[in-house]
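hey so i finally got around to running both of the ones u sent me last week. sorry it took forever, my laptop kept dying halfway thru and i had to restart like 3 times lol. anyway pasting them below in the order u listed, first the sequence line then the structure token line for each. didnt double check formatting much so if smth looks off just lmk and ill redo it

first one:
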Amino acid sequence: MANEILHIKKDVDLIRKTLLKELPPEHFSVKDIVRSFFGAAFIGSTFIFTRTLVEISPFLDGLRIFFIVLSTIGILTAEIYFIGYQRVENKNKRHFAQFWIKRLLTFYSVGILVSAYLAFIYNITFLVGSPENIAKLILAASMPCSIGASITDLLKKY
């Protein structure tokens, strides 16, 4: 009887570990890229319509634009590492650089594309004027759009 109870306990522990275990992230796919567009559009649309972004973006100098881009890359890198890469079981076979570069380039590209799309489709570019100011607006809006793009990857159930 005690032997059977011990055997059942081991089975229950195995089932518990299997059910509660965090699964490693799947490989990046086209479905993930499509999801990132929705996240970028959702988060980006809340920022692109703010009057402050439209008023301030023409006054951003090169240094501030550089820091916006650098901050975006830093935030995306932190999200990719701490939420995605930490679940990778075999880090020797799946190196961070490969895991990171695919996601970073995708999320940031999607963020820029969606911010440009939103700015042009709603004719917000008319409010900022010159092509240089349009580029500043797009880069400023790309930060929340990129973060929105990455959130879909982070929130999906693995």
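and the second one:
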Amino acid sequence: MAVEIIKRVILSEKGAKLSALNQYLLEVDTKATKPQIRQAVEEKFGVHVLAVRTANMKGGLRTIRGTRRQVVESTWKRAIVEVKAGERIEML
């Protein structure tokens, strides 16, 4: 179940700043609810989740560099998961 809900841990500057606050960015399934995300993170990473915040990230048009072509990106869902102090989610 956790495999289908959690797609990947997002490694970015914002994610690095949040990890100092015991919060982690995850890309999750667009139909996943907060309780499902909480359960999946606790099962997969073995941590205690304190809070889950979600946001639907709208896809859009991207111009391919050096060409006139445009590509449509799909919409995806992001979750910010706060874990108990002293616990970590291994990103790699």
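quick thing i noticed on the 2nd:
The first strand starts at residue 6 and ends at 9.
anyway thats it, ttyl
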